[in-house]
Amino acid sequence: LLFCPLKYRFQKQYREIALASAFSPITLMGELLHMGLEKFLVETFGSEAVKTEVEYEREVIVDNVSYIVKGRIDAIVGDNVVEIKTSRSDINIPHPHHVQQVRIYLWLTGLRRGLLVYLTPERIAEFYIETPASDGEIIDLIRSIIAGEPAPRYSWECNYCAYSRFCPHKVKRRG
Question: How much is the pTM?
């Protein structure tokens, strides 16, 4: 729900590009750090208290049409959603779209507290999120994907998008 609606369409249409981009060094490093922190949580708090890569889904009716919103949560520790992010820098964190992701996970799960964890070269930073997304926010995000707008959702997305080479809505990098 949070990235460019065109990317969502391109991922379905051009699966081989999505697969190839999953093997970039930066993506692999992020995946390995995620796996390591998830394993650390399980070993520290125990497998009874920690569930990793937990999938949730919830039905939403938008304009008389049923949609299923799905999410895969990095970890649930007790009654807390935990979302792990890696970043090259700790400047300007938390990023608003990451906060929104945790809020959507709170909406999906019905849990009331989320922890957004950033692993950066400088530090490990934690941010608590306690406000779930509203039904109205979710409906608005679904409508935006249906409409394909805004594309891109954020001006920086094209810099990291595997589909930007042929996307008609590519935003050129400044500088």
Answer: 0.90
